[in-house]
Amino acid sequence: MPRRSRRSAATWSTTRASSTRWPGPTSTRERPRPTSKRSRRRRSGRRSPWWRTSWSTAIGDVAVITLTTDFGTRDTYVAEMKAAILAIARDIHLVDITHEIAPHDVLEGALALEAAAPSFPADTIHVAVVDPGVGTARRGLAVAAREGVFIGPDNGLFTPFLRGARWSAFELSEREFRRPAVSRTFHGRDVFAPAAAHVARGLEPARLGPPVADPVRLPWPEAHEARGTIRGAVVHVDRFGNLVTSVGAEALSSLGPSVSVRVAGRALRLVGTYGDLSRGGAGALVGSHNRLEIAVNAGSAAAVLGARRGTPVVVSRTSAPARRARRQS
Known about the structure:
This protein is an alpha+beta fold. The protein has seven helices and 16 strands. The strands form three sheets. Strands 9, 10, 11, 12, 13, 14, 15 and 16 form an eight-stranded antiparallel β-sheet that branches. Strands 4-3-5-7-6-8 form a six-stranded mixed β-sheet, sandwiched between helices. It has a two-stranded antiparallel sheet with strand order 1-2. Strand 6 and strand 7 form a beta hairpin. Helix 3 packs parallel to helix 5. The radius of gyration is 23 Å and the shape is elongated.
């Protein structure tokens, strides 16, 4: 059996997570993993269940941390959060999902996470800060779910990832995993960012604090179907003025190929893509996040229809198949 060199045996990575199941830590210290070629080959054949993290899928074997906030980019807040992460873990791939969530709009932040998180590797750490209750008795939270680890305030931001039973939540109460001095107005920098950096270095989320069985959940916008009609609402208006609704593609398809969409007093037909509409024409289509959207070709549906978040949307099955025009006004 070939001898392992001292150099390879002593080579450690601080960006790979422990393979121990969440929760149930066996040590109070972060445990780095060896990254020699032999150890990588040995681990590569193992199948990891959803609760076990395999950081080898991260970009270039580097842990990925995303940031989603309502801070905007004018001030230094985002940079300060990144600095807090890099002070603990230098070899990190930081990705900005968005910092343009409307101020204090927790639901918009939750919808942004729901849309973006599935596109990332399942071992990604997502830090989200839309936190109007900062400095109050609201808890800090880490949620380990199938889509990744989510760290931020316990105010409903992580509602989309608390469905079913395949998640675990922990309160961010251990002071050793935050900055020594914590501002009552900037937990994003002093609590959430350091916690994410420690998880990226290999800390199990369960070490951040005690389990939480009752994380805050937002009332989630759902669509309801009855007798061939689906009733939903606009849940988001994007940068182009497209109206993203609570009606999912699967529910829409259950009505069949011939449907009519009614929003803001206008009856619209379903089309395949924006180019199927004449310039300035309004219509409905299934968007990239598998939700029904209302759009205007080369224009803003929000402005044309006078619609906003909360505007009702009704989708009805029509009695006879409608011939889809190549162009629709």
